[in-house]
Design goal:
6-stranded mixed β-sheet; 693 residues; Rossmann fold; flat; 9-stranded mixed β-sheet; 5 domains; Immunoglobulin-like; alpha/beta
């Protein structure tokens, strides 16, 4: 220990001089003092010491100390807590005697080391109460957690007890590097292949469209079942839809079978895939899997209404008909008698026109507030078109047209285009566009501008605008059928033209969401995943708010009802209800805002996780690789008691002694305070004894 201060050495002499002067003035200037010479000298010395010490403390000296620390090696115990360990022949041993051996080993290690215990499976957490209940195994996550938590710590060894089966995360050996301490692996589980069949993998689309068919691929693996024949079936709501006989050949059998299912019911559909088990299979839990498909009634209804027959109408109808998600009808204006509200999009070809009778259809459609795509041509009455106030107005005093080429607008953001599409469209023949002055609303976005010769004036050929809650589009030009023909002549297909029309129709036909309360969640979850809801609430101006409380009522597959409250987060709502058992759930969210009751409903399916049932053969080779790479050792469960002695024999596992320099103010040392009090106290006692006080 040493004392350090920032002042020159002679400041210390000033402190001594100050204490000396103070003592002389206080005790030796008074010649009439009743104190004896001996008492005066004693008191002077005491005052000199206390005054000099106090003056020295004003210089803020620091005490430099060297502290020695000894850190015991840390031994990390990682125990696999996954359910697959109970499917082997030693399951009774692991639930009983093994846990006693593990506890005894931990107690033995704690005599010489600092022991930290973890359980890993679907996550990594502290503790050593093994239950073998986790529905998946992520060994790489455990290794990463140890790396992150114990960086720059004296970790002597890692004891990893597992069967080596992992079904989540990356290959564990990929996470092993030279920075890790020795890993001593306890090889649990059974490496023997036994009679078992499993639905190993399902491949399917989670979304299908109503009225269509959709495929599903099922991969089945089997061991030790040579010569057996079992039935593979797909069922929905307890009704078997399709079956197929599977003949197992060889000790290690694998096959992938394909089924084609009908999307005949709208909404979330829950399917069960089952392979009939044999009598002596090790596990039957892996003989069935579930899947959820969201059947969407997404066939948008499109109407094309024309002022008169025209090749543009035929080109548009052919293109839209090619997309199975659209159902298109075409009419002449005088023949259209349907309700406009039944359509997702209406295409008005050269309407409104000079035919007053035909314009009655336009008025009916505009009042219905459905999305409209106007195709403007020579028959269009521009004055009546301007009166619709749909976002584009064209003022023309003479009945003339321009031949306008399409030029892509790179500032367009409503939807995206492959570059080759708009490059091809720019090469298509010009359209006949009205001559005049064009005006669009500020929120209009031009997809293609008009290029007349070499001049680009910013007038649109194709533009989109949203007026309040309704979307409108304009094709300003007659002769779009030429684009379809040119596309086929140049590229031997209608792909570029179809992409253009599909994108425009998709954007316009999607209705603007006017709901003030909106709840979103996934359509399906695993039974080991947390179920999360996000909520949005808007006022009448569609500004986000989150002051009212939102209640969610959840109906379980058993018919019970659970109630939850959303948490407010910034301008939104959030709710995590944790994991749920397998089955179909429905929910309704409700709130009250401005004395108005608002609600939103939906459904989701929880699928049973079968990850731990798929592979039941222990991978001791991988565990041995982890141990070898880190200079550790593989040990079998019944020899677990040897681990403590093996670690003690490793000379690399030892305590770390390190020194630390610590600086502190002298004033903070209790000994200095005690010394000052003793000096002043002794001085007071002597003066009291001598009668000076």
């Amino acid at each position: 220990m040493s004392i350090i201060f920032d002042y020159k050495w002679y400041f210390f002499l000033f402190c001594i001089l100050l204490g000396l002067v103070y003592a002389l003035v206080f005790y030796f200037k008074n010649k009439d003092s009743i104190l004896s010479t001996k008492a005066t000298i004693t008191l002077g010395v005491l005052r000199f010491c206390s005054a000099s010490l106090l003056a020295f403390l004003f210089l803020s000296p620091l005490v430099k100390q060297k502290l020695t620390h000894k850190e015991k090696p840390i031994i990390i115990i990682g125990q696999d807590n996954s359910a697959s360990l109970l499917y082997c022949k030693d399951s009774a041993f692991y639930k009983g005697e093994y846990q006693t051996l593990l506890s005894n080993t931990i107690a033995d290690l704690q005599k010489d080391y600092e022991v930290h215990s973890y359980l890993f499976g679907q996550s990594t957490q502290t503790g050593n109460e093994v239950t073998f209940t986790d529905n998946k195994t992520d060994i790489s996550n455990f290794v990463d957690e140890i790396k992150n938590r114990y960086i720059n710590r004296n970790v002597g060894a890692i004891v990893l007890a597992s069967d080596g089966i992992y079904n989540s995360g990356t290959l564990p050996t990929n996470n092993i590097d030279k920075l890790l301490p020795p890993i001593y692996t306890i090889a649990m589980g059974d490496t023997t292949s036994r009679k078992d069949a499993t639905i190993y993998h399902l491949k399917y689309n989670k979304i299908a469209y109503l009225g269509n068919k959709f495929p599903i691929e099922i991969t089945i693996k089997a061991t030790k079942l040579d010569g057996k024949t079992r039935k593979l079936s797909i069922a929905k709501d307890g009704k078997v839809l399709q079956t197929k006989d599977i003949v197992y050949t060889g000790d290690r059998f694998s096959t992938t079978e394909q089924f084609i299912l009908d999307a005949d019911t709208k909404g979330l559909q829950h399917y069960t895939i089952h392979i009939e088990p044999t009598d002596d299979e090790i596990s039957t839990g892996n003989n069935y899997r579930t899947m959820t498909v969201d059947i969407i009634d997404n066939r948008q209804k499109i109407a094309i209404i024309a002022n008169s027959p025209h090749p543009d109408v035929a080109a548009l109808k052919r293109c839209i008909d090619d997309n199975e998600n659209y159902e298109v009808e075409s009419f002449l204006a005088g023949d259209f008698k349907n309700a406009a509200e039944k359509y997702n999009l209406i295409i008005l070809h050269q309407l409104p026109s000079n035919n007053v009778r035909n314009n009655e259809v336009v008025e009916k459609i505009m009042k219905a507030k459905v999305p409209v795509l106007f195709v403007v041509g020579e028959q269009t009455d521009l004055t009546r078109l301007n009166n619709q106030k749909a976002g584009l107005q064209i003022y023309s005093k003479i009945n003339k047209t321009n031949e306008s080429q399409a030029l892509y607008n790179k500032d367009f953001t409503l939807f995206t285009f492959p570059q080759e599409v708009y490059e091809k469209i720019e090469q298509f023949p010009p359209l006949s566009t009205p001559f005049g002055e064009y005006k669009t609303t500020t929120n209009a976005q031009n997809l293609f501008n008009a290029k007349i010769g070499t001049i680009t004036d910013g007038n649109p050929i194709i533009t989109f605008v949203q007026m309040h809650d309704v979307r409108y589009g304009f094709v300003v030009g007659e002769g779009i059928w030429k684009w379809a023909l040119a596309d086929y002549m140049q590229n031997n297909s209608h792909q570029n033209f179809n992409t253009l029309i599909d994108k425009a129709v998709m954007y316009l036909s999607l209705r603007v969401n006017k709901d003030q309360l909106r709840i979103t969640t996934q359509n399906s979850y695993r039974d080991n995943e947390p179920i999360i809801f996000e909520g949005e609430l808007y006022n009448e101006n569609f500004e986000p708010i989150n002051t009212p409380e939102i209640t969610l009522k959840l109906s379980t597959p058993e018919g019970n009802t659970k109630e939850y409250q959303f948490n407010q987060t910034n301008n939104n709502y959030h709710l995590n209800i944790g994991s749920m058992a397998a089955g179909k759930y429905t929910y309704t969210a409700t709130t009250t805002y401005n004395n108005k009751d608002l609600s939103a409903a939906g459904a989701f399916v929880v699928e049973e996780s079968k990850l731990e049932d798929i592979n039941l053969v222990a991978d001791h080779t991988m565990l041995n690789t982890m141990a070898t790479k880190t200079n550790g050792k593989l040990i079998y469960p019944k020899d677990i008691a040897q681990i403590a002695d093996i670690i003690r024999d490793n000379n690399e596992v030892k305590s770390v002694i390190y020194e630390e320099e610590k600086y502190s103010e002298v004033l903070n040392m209790p000994l200095i305070l005690v010394l000052i009090i003793m000096l002043l106290g002794t001085e007071w006692v002597v003066r009291k004894y001598c009668g000076e006080i």
